[in-house]
Amino acid sequence: MGAKCTSMSGNYKEAKLRSEEIDRQLNQFATQESNVSKMLLLGTGESGKSTLVKQMKVIYNEGFSDEELLSFRPTILDNLLSSMKYTLAGMGLLRIRLESSRNKSAAKIILSHEPIRPVSENETNYHYTLSETTIKALQALWKDKGVRTAVIRGHEYELNDSALYLFENIDRITAEKYEPTVRDVLRARVRTNGVIETDFIACQGALRTRVLDAGISLTSATPQWTIAKWMRCFEDVKGVIFVVSLSGYDMLKQTEPNINRLQDSIELFRKISSNRYFQNCLMILFMNKMDLFRQKILYSKRHLRYYFSDFKGPDCNVDTAALFIQNRLLSVTQRPVFPHFITAVDTADVKAIFESVLNIVLKRNVEKYELI
Ligand SMILES: Nc1nc2c(ncn2[C@@H]2O[C@H](COP(=O)(O)OP(=O)(O)OP(=O)(O)O)[C@@H](O)[C@H]2O)c(=O)[nH]1
Ligand SMILES: [Mg+2]
């Protein structure tokens, strides 16, 4: 018995020493620039890449300072204004009338409003405020049943995914003392131009990671050689995170209105996953906007079978519909893919999924350096 105890404590000591040695080597590995694990975010426009980058800042870095939050104020007000402009244009397309003809003047005020310029380095329009007339016009329009009907039918004219959130928060957002919250910032929409890099340390200090938002507009029509040409700018990428917006299943592309948005993403995924440039990368698939997808499948009556005629599952069943889309995406490639359903605006969800993705990357690194 005594001997057994001694050998167990011996084993324990040995394991502890080995674990400490692995931790030391991993920390050393993580501090070298050449050991940064680069993860490249790719996907069609508006799939949620920049939202994931914002979440990396919230989860792994210092988050948003008060000043940074405030700097989003003009963008969010502009998003609100342009969403209302877009809704009014959509009403024209769908021949939906304003409920109250008195709101025609409100519509004119909004449609003729100049876009709000985002903050530049030399400028500080953090405290940009809409005029009282514009705020009243926005509020009156949001109360109009015609506008609400058009928002519900937003998928028919590409209304952006954050429009409803912004309209529902209209009074708070247009208040004189409005200070954007992190939730608001995650809903803000600015098209990315140029590469955005975000560095952070994950997996208890063992993995130095750089997430790259390529800021390139890719579609299924982008030729393979163009993809390869662009990707040469990104050396030593460990993994590609391909982001797909699930909520696009019932939407058409803005530029080519005969192409379904989800089909477009599936086709782009086929191209990316078969591109020779990414042959040695981990291929991670984020099927994003699960929150909106759930709402649509459960309540919108826009059943998946209307857009994918080979879907034979039951209506209003989120899991079956989501798995059908996952299988469709996985069927376009032969290579191993790590698929995840995700809601990029939900910090807890992103954290849990990212941890598991980064653990795979870490495991690969460890295997490479024969630490295990
Ligand atoms: N409700 C909801 N909205 C989301 C989600 N992910 C992203 N969005 C919203 O979708 C919009 C587009 O997201 P972005 O992160 O800017 O998309 P992107 O892929 O970076 O777009 P580009 O820069 O044009 O390529 C933003 O308004 C986000 O707030 C999600 O999971 N749920
Ligand atoms: Mg972006």
Write the topology of this structure.
Layout lengths: L1 H30 L5 E7 L5 H11 L6 H6 L1 H22 L9 H8 L20 H12 L1 H8 L10 H6 L1 H4 L8 H6 L8 E7 L4 E7 L10 H8 L5 E9 L15 H14 L7 E7 L1 H10 L4 H4 L10 H13 L7 E4 L5 H22 L4
Parallel strand pairs: 1-3, 1-4, 4-5, 5-6
Antiparallel strand pairs: 2-3
Helix pairs in contact: 4-7, 5-6
The structure holds guanosine-5'-triphosphate and magnesium ion (MG).
In short:
The protein has 372 residues and is of the alpha/beta class.
Give an overview of the whole structure.
The chain has 2 domains: 37-64 and 192-360, P-loop containing nucleotide triphosphate hydrolases (Rossmann fold, 3-Layer(aba) Sandwich); 73-179, GI Alpha 1, domain 2-like (Orthogonal Bundle), CATH 1.10.400.10. It has 16 helices and 6 strands. Strand 4 (237-245), helix 12 and strand 5 (282-288) form a beta-alpha-beta unit. The protein has helices spanning 2-31, 49-59, 66-71, 73-94, 104-111, 132-143, 145-152, 163-168, 170-173, 182-187, 224-231, 261-274, 290-299, 304-307, 318-330, 347-368, and strands at residues 37-43, 196-202, 207-213, 237-245, 282-288, 338-341. It has 372 residues and is an alpha/beta fold. Helix 4 (73-94) packs across helix 7 (145-152) and helix 5 packs across helix 6 (132-143). The model is unreliable at 1-6 (pLDDT under 50). Helices cover 49% and strands 11% of the residues. It starts with a helix and ends with a helix. It has a 6-stranded mixed β-sheet, with helices on both faces. Bound molecules: guanosine-5'-triphosphate and magnesium ion. Guanosine-5'-triphosphate (GTP) binds next to helix 2, helix 10 and helix 13.
